[in-house]
């Protein structure tokens, strides 16, 4: 039994004893109206009502403790679900194209915040124009049928674009009463509540993520959730783009008709040698990884080779 439950039990016993004490006297005085009033004063001065007040206060405090416990459990549950979502994102990126991956990420954010719509915009390098990347699947199918330009200036965007202008989250729990809102495009879903926040990299806003129309007010925990997943979505996007870029350049180097050699500047061992060079030398890639240019050309000394590559080292 917890401390609170023990306290409640003791108070129940105490209150029960007090009421039993007076029960017989109450029955006797019920027959005389004046005496009932008299007994009311007796109850007050004897501490019966005071005990009742203490009892009810204890009940209130225990109820508060129970509410706090429920809130703590809800927070722990949300944190566990967020951690699971963060693990799902990189796995999903491995087999989804970029647009589908972002839509998948939006669905995770929607579910975690209890939202009904979600959107992602990229902010162009000029910081003056925004590119609409995606609405969540739920928003497209059930809520938003408006036609949007894919690119438009920040100056013409609504209140949600304050996330770009100010570099801070926008939270509106009563969009209808907001005095500076703009008219929504025809076919756009009714907007009741909104979170719009920036993803910032190297001091610049690079992406905006938003969710809307939760059935209850958005909280700081919701903002934290959207920010956490948005940052992760952006990082994964950049990693995937870089991986694709590296793969393209690797393919170009490998298939180049020129002989291309990449070696470690300290050990001089080959790191990469393209197809044309391997065919010309007659070595496999595995064999070349164990060799240096000095091994390929026995007459070449370390000193003469260093002279040749000195201009490259100075760049």
Helix-strand blueprint:
Elements (H helix, E strand, L loop, with lengths): L2 H27 L3 H14 L1 H46 L4 H16 L3 E7 L5 E7 L1 H7 L7 E3 L8 H4 L4 E3 L21 E8 L2 E9 L7 H36 L5 E3 L6 E4 L1 H7 L3 H4 L4 H4 L5 H12 L2
Antiparallel strand pairs: 1-2, 1-6, 2-3, 4-5, 5-6, 7-8
How does this model look, in words?
The chain folds into 3 domains: 3-76; 96-246, Beta-Lactamase, CATH 3.30.450.40; 256-313, no CATH class. The N and C termini lie far apart (74 Å). The radius of gyration is 35 Å and the shape is elongated. With 315 residues, the protein is α+β, with helices and mostly antiparallel strands. The relative contact order is 0.07. Residues 11-15 and 35-46 have low confidence and may be disordered. The protein is built from 11 helices and 8 strands. 56% of the residues lie in helices and 14% in strands.
């Amino acid at each position: 039994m917890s401390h609170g439950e023990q306290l409640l039990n003791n108070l129940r016993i105490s209150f029960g004893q007090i009421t039993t004490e007076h029960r017989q006297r109450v029955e006797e005085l019920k027959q005389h109206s004046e005496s009932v009033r008299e007994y009311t004063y007796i109850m007050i001065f004897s501490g019966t009502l005071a005990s009742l007040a203490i009892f009810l206060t204890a009940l209130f405090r225990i109820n508060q403790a129970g509410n706090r416990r429920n809130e703590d459990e809800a927070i722990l549950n949300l944190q566990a679900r967020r951690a699971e979502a963060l693990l799902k994102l990189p796995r999903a990126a491995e087999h989804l194209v970029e647009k589908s991956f972002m839509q998948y990420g939006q669905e995770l954010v929607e579910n975690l915040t209890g939202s009904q719509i979600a959107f992602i915009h990229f902010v162009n390098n000029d910081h003056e124009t925004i590119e609409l990347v995606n609405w969540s699947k739920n928003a497209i199918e059930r809520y938003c049928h408006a036609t949007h330009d894919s690119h438009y200036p920040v100056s013409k965007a609504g209140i949600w674009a304050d996330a770009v202008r100010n570099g801070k989250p926008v939270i509106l729990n009563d969009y209808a009463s907001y005095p500076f809102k703009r008219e929504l495009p025809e076919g756009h879903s009714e907007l009741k509540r909104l979170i719009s926040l920036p993803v910032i990299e190297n001091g610049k806003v690079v992406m905006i993520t938003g969710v809307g129309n939760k059935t209850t007010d958005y909280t700081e925990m919701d903002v934290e959730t959207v920010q956490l997943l948005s940052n992760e979505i952006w990082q994964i996007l950049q990693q995937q783009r870089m991986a694709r870029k590296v793969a393209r350049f690797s393919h170009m180097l490998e298939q180049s008709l020129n002989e291309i050699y990449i070696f470690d500047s300290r050990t001089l061992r080959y790191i990469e040698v393209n197809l044309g060079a391997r065919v010309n030398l007659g070595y496999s890639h595995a064999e070349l990884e164990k060799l240096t240019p000095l091994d390929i050309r026995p007459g070449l000394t370390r000193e003469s080779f260093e002279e040749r590559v000195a201009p490259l080292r100075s760049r």
